[in-house]
User: What shape does this take?
Amino acid sequence: MDVPVPAISPRLDDAPCGADRRWLGPLIVLFVVKGLLLVAIVGPFTGHDEVDHFYYVARLAHGDGLGVVGKVPLPPEAAPYRAYVADFPNNAEVIQPPLYHLLLLPLYWVTPGDDETRLYVLRLASVAIGAAVVWLAYLTAALIFPRDLWARAAVPICVALQPQFAFEAAIVNHDILVIALATLLLYLLLRWYRTGYTPRRTLWLGVIAGAGLWTKASFGFILPVVALALVLAWRERGGGRRELAASLLRSCGLALLIATPWFVRSIWYYGDPTGARRLHEIPEYGDQAASLGSMLFSGPFWRSRLEDFWGNYGWRLVPFDPRVYDAIYLMWFVAGVGLALLVVSEVAGLVRKRPSAFSRYQRTAFGLLALWLVLLVGAVLYVGTIQFTQSRFAFPGMVAFAVLSVLGFGWWLPRSLRPALAPTLFVLLMTLNVVAAIRFLIPYYYGASGVTVLTR
Assistant: This one.
């Protein structure tokens, strides 16, 4: 019996972007409309850490400086939302680098009205950033699957309609900028792998990674992916070790150099470069820390992470019911098994010296994306040893999740049916989004009828 594998051309031509715009444009418009609906539906300041992030922006807008954790109280206006604050009455998010918050300052300054009005306007910035991520998801898929429309379309569909990513792109939280910068960095890393890492390009990689570190210190988990890509490209194309060392310095080294002032500040105030020690000392954070072993071998822990990845909106306030989770897990299980069988097939083919279904470039891309996901899972576990952890710390790998999931689904389908994968995923994920809004989000915020949503 032949083992089915996705029919993916090894050609590395750019995808026919002109033809793809016919469906990509409407998909991005749909994402924006969905984001605007979420901005309106989700109650003010109920997104995870939204209170702290908003008043971090407000603090900078009023010229009060960065502040130190434990010494920056939230203003009285935040009191009604204390249930959504981890360390009330203090702002714990001032421990984070300020790039995201600085970028929102112009919007804050030009928006009239009270804090709630400003919050909704700042949320619109997240919708725009999220739309950029969907576009980058398409560009990344076009690099990897230049002649396979079914895969090229399925990847941005998975990203645009993933419920928790859409939620992240409708609240005030720096994670959406982290996702965007990580996705941009991976796209350029894969694109330039094909055409060469020139000195100027490696400098850009360093600048983007440095911006990521000035958004969230955990962005540093991507640096091993950058380093491995440079090493693999060097081995493939040849060159001196001095050239490789220079590339690593211009990318990873520059990123760390750019972030050094923030790391030094954190060491000065908190005793370590990321402030992890101070977060661990906050009761609402540190009391929920766990050992690595207790997380790794805990079924409830991983089930909770899966629920966080797909549902549990905000501070785990709006979960799906078990039947919805079961349907999601069944579909993702199918993708996971398909991906595992695809890997086994490829390894067996390598042993038997059978030609691969993928080009060398594609195999490298899959490997780099898989490494990024492994590192992000490690980041989720690492955070769990400091404080409570959530699956959103793995969201910077959303495009990688989509690519590998699409590969897993594609394994099961005969070649003639693979074009149906993208529209099928669209229907299934769109149904999930509608169910999530009607059955869970709207009833939670506006009552069982949800009539007030229409009249508000």
